[in-house]
From TrEMBL:
One of its GO terms (molecular function) is oxidoreductase activity, acting on NAD(P)H. It holds the Pfam family ADH_N. It comes from Pantoea rodasii. SMART domains: PKS_ER. This is NAD(P)H-quinone oxidoreductase. InterPro entries: ADH-like_C, ADH-like_N, ER, GroES-like_sf, NAD(P)-bd_dom_sf, Quinone_OxRdtase_PIG3.
Amino acid sequence: MIPEMMNAVMARELGGPDVLACVSRPLPQPAAGEVLIRVCSAGVNRPDIMQRNGMPLPPDTTDILGLEASGIVVALGAGVKSPAIGTPVMALLNGGGYADYCVARAELCLAVPDTLPLAQAASVPEAAFTVWHNLFELGRLEPGNTVLIHGAASGVGTFAIQCAQACGARVIATAGGADKIAALQKLGVWRAIDRHTEDFVEVVQALTQERGVDVVLDNVGGDYVARNLSVMAQGGRHVSLSFMQGAKIELDLQQVMRKGLILTSSTLRPKSAAEKARLAQCVSRHLLPLIAAGKISPTIHQTLPLAAAAEAHCVLEANANIGKVLLQVSL
């Protein structure tokens, strides 16, 4: 029996984690091409924090937070034949994941491998879409390449490490603190660099005999960009995921031209439905088999109840997580 009302989390106003509130809302109804999901778990991501702080949203986006969720399909919108009612899925959302129920485009629902618990599956969609597009499509990572991943202890970072290694690339990863370095070493990276005590430029140059890296996956921005360019190999690709230390940078075009570097970036949420559907097909074809085979296993830092969403945001804002933070909604 599907209820008429549900619990959900939204921001009462702009501000810190304390503005998050549990509210009662009518169940969303799946429109044509959508499915209704009874949520098991929801992923917590930095865009949720940015939304809470007032980031402009795409038109007609719900004020309920949450860009990914796992759960069971319980109703279908017009024209939907797959996934069927009763199917466990993990879905990329435009919003609404922090709730008992959410709607998702049918084509953005991924099958959950038998080896992946449904409660952990909410950690996959944002990371998988982001990593496939940025690391493999824009970054053109290939077997034998060397990739430098910054902020590598994050949910996306730990996922990217495993994807890169599964394709035969060598990974150099940066993070802050002994616990995070130990976690990266456990994942099998070629070299983990503690940003608090080491200069990644010096380490990378020594490791690669000054050849440099083929790909940089950067979520730091600011003065990291110039330092990244200095350790990139001829024809290297620099992919920006975020700019936690600032979006304004100085760029040495002479260096870019001399090395034939490519600087690129993307954001997932504003992409068109058609582009997201294309990415979903790529993730299903290329990454889900690696998860099913155990070559990629999402790193889960902590699972908290839905009512503790504010605590989950505090963990992310403090950069205290190693892997993903999830909200458990139902069993």
